[in-house]
Sequence to fold (445 residues):
Amino acid sequence: MNKTIVSISTPLGKGAISIVRMSGDNSLKIAQSFFSSKKLDYDKIQPNYLYLGHFNFNDKCSEKCFMVYFKSPFSYTGDDMVEFQVHGGTILTQKIVDSLINNGASLAQQGEFSQIAFENGKISLDEAEAIIGEINAESESELKANLNLADGKLKQKIIDLQNELTSQIAQIEATLDYPEEDFEKSVKESIFNSINDIKKQLSFFIEQSNNLKYINHGVNVSIVGSPNVGKSSLLNALIGEEKAIVTDIAGTTRDIVNEYSYYKGIKFNFIDTAGIRDSNDTVEKIGIEKSQKSILLADIVLCLIDGSRKIDEYDEKIINLVKDKKHIIVVNKIDCERKSQKFDDEIEISAKDEINIELLKEKIYNMVIDSSIDFNKMMVVNQRQSEILKSAEEITIEILNNKEESMDIISMLIKKLWNCLGKITGECENESIIDLIFSKFCLGK
Fold:
């Protein structure tokens, strides 16, 4: 008999409802000690049915609430489960949890419900990671990728690859068991053709994962330029809000201003910086140093030029600072007569009148996001999966470079590849990976 665990599965604090979740063989027995309802006969309880009744505390107080019973194996964890839906409140929900613990349940550890679900075959390791991703998603693209993962799309691809590798191992075993049969050459040819196909599939997944940084954390866009060229106005136009202070006085922005907006499901983290020039003002000098540092840390730099005046030494200095970075020359104030020189691949805008702002966002997007990536089909969602796929690809290369080795050596390498792929779904022998992933879950999940 497995232990029965309990935890609050909704955020702590005041709210409309809180859910207390309990899983394990004794869930229903423990619930029976507290919950009563006129329509409930525990000998004939209906799974997946929401009962309205009372949670009766030992001090003769009671809470009007709902209870639902999920019968094994048709539950999230695969074990018997009971959930109580009660009025939201920190003391109330904790009192319910304490009552259940005092009657035989154990307080669940972080991610323990999901780890039990994994151990019972209800979810795979990649699906568990998708659940974390869904909860923590901060952009539409990140959510879409995690929804695909939760739907088991990557899991099925990996299982298909592992099944193919299992078939290859079986072919090798046949050649070893029947050495008198002269078909080792044809078996090798079949194996290496298959490994080459697997390598192509892995390369595709890895290519997808190159955008992971932008999907999960957004694109860092630094806006730089000399004083009073319209950096703060551009920030306000890009995010659609008046967040940065705009004046005609040069040097208004003296510190980094961070704001964000979304474009095509990708989060753009915009950084408005202090105007870069020579200054004796201590505070402004610190701001200028931060501006220069933001250039180094940005994924893309918007080098803003005032098109209504000629280029000066500060503009030239800034252009030189960004030349080795991924950047866009943005010429502002096209609502005025143009006096600045033309630049290759520039984009003209008016930050004040918000002219060509959407074109600028599209240009930023196209410079960092692979146009071939379809976020509706994205399956690799984190760095761990990406690194495993890269390791697997290296093993395929190792196999293809050892065509002249014995079948024993080739079989060993294929098994190594099978186990490497299994680290994604949990079909492997490394328990420490499993423990690490579930430790990232919150209590009650």
